[in-house]
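Tokens in:
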């Protein structure tokens, strides 16, 4: 579909109608009381007038709940990452599409230029959208005895550490790839000790899964907790042995590092989990799995509910 035919990217009224069709497929739902009936639309209501616009700005998508105990006004923004945002909804949709369609991400500076908003606004938009991409509480990987690849990588510098040889001074990431579903799930970890990694793996992988790792000794105990553990020996340049390989998780790390170094260039540890959520989301909904840019953006839009992120929270953690 041509961008010119996607009016929700440039028309605010169409943007509200589009988001409502995605988040309210059965019709409007009052976020205050949960009622799906007895509401009515407030047409032509305008926000408070000012000197710049004496007539005020029209409030699109405004409803009022008809329940006697409620009687509150609401829009589809309420209870989502869009709540209390002064940025027009159609620019939010543009930002979601740009982030979802950029394989290695798009920087806040680029969003600031493309959307014609302040850099601070673009930075906050991107973090809220990453929060919408974050998944949690989903079924464990490897259900039904499927293979799960596990590996770790290093990025940036740990807070308080100085750059030196080796990897001890770098931030550490653990990633899981469910080979059957093609999904990725990544975690920021403080160290690579068995006591740290094993609980994370056990919580996110089914017991009947077949584990695929490299020869790192920290993974050798996996055979005691899962149906099978196989490994390749990178030290002797062995990268696959029949179906036994970690090439998929290595491929994920390749895209992740190119994006972090080439697009974002720097990331503090307190924000790293959100960037991982972004790369996990795009990898889990990539073109190889039959998900195009439009469908990927729609999936991200479905995740906006209940994940409002305050600016002070995004700045502190």
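Residues out:
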């Amino acid at each position: 579909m041509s961008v010119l035919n996607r009016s929700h990217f440039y028309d605010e009224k169409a943007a509200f109608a589009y988001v409502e069709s995605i988040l309210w497929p059965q019709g409007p739902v009052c976020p205050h009381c949960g009622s799906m009936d007895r509401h009515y639309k407030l047409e032509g209501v305008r926000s408070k007038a000012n000197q710049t616009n004496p007539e005020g700005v029209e409030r699109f998508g405004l409803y009022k709940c008809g329940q006697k105990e409620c009687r509150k006004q609401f829009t589809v923004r309420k209870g989502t990452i869009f709540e209390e945002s002064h940025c027009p909804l159609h620019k939010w949709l543009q930002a979601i599409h740009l982030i979802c369609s950029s394989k290695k991400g798009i920087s806040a500076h680029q969003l600031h230029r493309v959307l014609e908003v302040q850099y601070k606004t673009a930075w906050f938009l991107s973090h809220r959208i990453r929060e919408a991409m974050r998944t949690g509480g989903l079924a464990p990987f490897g259900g039904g005895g499927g293979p799960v690849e596990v590996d770790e990588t290093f990025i940036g510098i740990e807070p308080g550490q100085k750059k030196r040889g080796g990897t001890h001074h770098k931030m550490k990431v653990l990633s899981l790839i469910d080979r059957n579903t093609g999904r990725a799930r990544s975690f920021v970890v403080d160290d690579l000790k068995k006591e740290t990694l094993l609980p994370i793996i056990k919580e996110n992988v089914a017991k009947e899964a077949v584990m695929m790792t490299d020869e790192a000794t920290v993974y050798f105990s996996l055979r005691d907790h899962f149906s099978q553990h196989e490994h390749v020996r990178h030290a002797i340049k062995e990268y696959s042995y029949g179906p036994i390989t970690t090439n998929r998780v290595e491929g994920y790390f390749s895209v992740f590092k190119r994006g972090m170094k080439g697009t974002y260039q720097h990331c503090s540890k307190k924000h790293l989990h959100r960037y991982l959520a972004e790369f996990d989301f795009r990898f889990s909904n990539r073109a190889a799995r039959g998900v195009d840019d439009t469908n990927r953006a729609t999936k991200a839009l479905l995740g906006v509910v209940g994940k409002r992120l305050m600016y002070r929270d995004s700045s502190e953690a």
